[in-house]
Amino acid sequence: MARKKRPPEPDLLDAIESGDIALVERLLAKGADLSDDGWNESPASYAVRRNQIQILALLIRHGVDPRHSDDILFWDAVYWRRPAIMKLLATTVFAPDLWRGRGLEDIQKEANLLYAKIEKGIDAYLPEAKQEASRLARVELFDAAMTCWEKIRPDPPKIKISDVPAKGRAL
Fold first, then answer.
1. CB 38 within 8 Å of CB 50
2. Number of other CB atoms surrounding residue 60 within 10 Å
3. CA 8, 14, 64, 115: dihedral to nearest 10 degrees?
4. Within this chain, do residues 87 and 15 fall inside the same structural domain, yes or no?
5. What is the span of the domain harbouring residue 139?
6. Tally of domains within the chain
7. List of E strands, 27-139
8. Tens of pLDDT along 70-117?
């Protein structure tokens, strides 16, 4: 009796391309490799290129570092013009729990460092879209950095409910 040949296991990049989150989760549970695939593209970079933000968030939850490989994911997000992905990456790097006990200068320094790396790539590979690409990177990075600071700063502004009028006042 001949055995039926089993179809090959789906590859992680194929699952990312299809957008099948459940399949990506199954492959990750089976120990799928999160490094590059032989084409020198990591699953995370592929998710950015394919605009698979939910899958990228899943990969980050499974240990992908948004800062890996010299911040290539940030550059990918700018290159492929993926503002939602840039926001996800920036908010992950500037998650308040990672910055507790650190000062505003530390956060600003990190945002400036990331921006400088992205800007270098823009100059080299996107000179025709420099203004648009720079704006995307700058807005998302510094918004995430300042949001982080607002959540961890030692002296957050206090607003008394009694100072806020319940209704507009008649003139």
1. no
2. 17
3. 160
4. no
5. 66-153
6. 2
7. none
8. 788 999 999 999 999 999 999 999 999 999 999 999 999 999 999 999
